[in-house]
Amino acid sequence: MPSEIDLFTQINNSVLDLQGAQLQNYERPLQTLVRLLHDPSLEEINRSLIEHVDFESFITASERTGGSMVGSAQLAWPDDHDSTLGLTLILLDKLASDSSFALNFSHHFFYSGSKVIAGIHSLTRQLIIPFVRDYKAYVHHHGNSTPKLIMPKSNKVFIVHGHDGEAREAVARFISTIGFIPIILHEQANRGRTIIEKVEANSDVGFAIVLLTPDDEGKTRNSIQLEPRARQNVLLELGYFIGRLGRDHVCALKRGIVEIPSDFAGVVWETMEPGNGWKQVLGRELEAAGHDINWNKVMRA
Q1: Which of the residues 69, 109, 196, 244 has an alpha carbon 20 to 30 A from that of 189?
Q2: Cα end-to-end span (Å), the chain
Q3: Tens digits of per-residue pLDDT, 258-297?
Q4: What's the whole-model pTM score?
Q5: How high does pLDDT run on average in the chain?
């Protein structure tokens, strides 16, 4: 079954992502925001807001406010609050569909210095954040107090791993065999992104499998004995996916002797030892998370 979540929580998350975005990745959260604003549950309200507004006249009037000084142009908002919301909806559509228009518009009306991304950040603070606040209040006032976003179950499964290539490949093969798409970070294109940006860009998954393997060693300050531990990037990504997907959509497989973080209590983890028992465990956890599992494939894998 698809999961149902608060639509405005997702809208707020996209705005937060836009606030922290850089020039090379601001388009994605902006497009996500617009996609969420066009959720079917908001269709009737959006139609009522935009049906009587004249966007071209609004832009023309706004352009006339600019003088010779950079940043002097101001948006010619109407006095009517509902019309302002409708114009902003249309504006966001155009910003998300044309990156050149978005950059030029932000620089022209929200000039904040020589850095191009500064205009996007200023647009977000001065226009998008107040709009989301007022739009949410409008939606609630007009009877749809808890709009829900129906999220289809993704068949992508993110595999978090350390240096144990054998475990990684075994899990990836199994996931593929039973009809899912394994997402392994180093197989995805870099596109100039940092590791955490790559994780975020590939986190549109329905489930995460975290391989806890003894790749590192560590100890407390007063201890003498070194203990096998998972790599730090594995623990970071473990926490990330618990926060993003929820504990019931994350399963850890522990291979060998490895310390389990104390904060991991309450999250499913299983032992990955020789044999096929771990495959049945993964099948069971995927099924519990709402995915359809072909148990004939699981048993033959």
Answers
A1: 244
A2: 25
A3: 877 666 655 667 888 777 889 999 999 999 888 999 999 9
A4: 0.52
A5: 86
Check: CB of residue 156 under 8 Å from CB of residue 204: yes
What is the spatial distance between Cα 51 and Cα 43, in angstroms, rounded to a whole number? 12
pLDDT at 175: 95
pLDDT tens per residue across span 183-195:
999 888 787 888 8
How far apart (Å, rounded) are the C-alpha atoms in residues 178 and 301?
Answer: 8
CA distance 147 to 131: 17
Which residues, in sequence order, are CB contacts of 29 under 8 Å at separation 6+?
14, 15, 17, 18, 21
Q: Given its phi and psi angles, is residue 278 left (phi above 0), alpha (psi -120 to 50 degrees) or beta? A: alpha
Among 79, 32, 71, 77, which Cα is nearest to 55's? 77
Query: What's the 3-state SS for 61-109?
Result: HHHCCCCCCCCCCCCCCCCCHHHHHHHHHHHHHHHHHCHHHHHHHHHHH
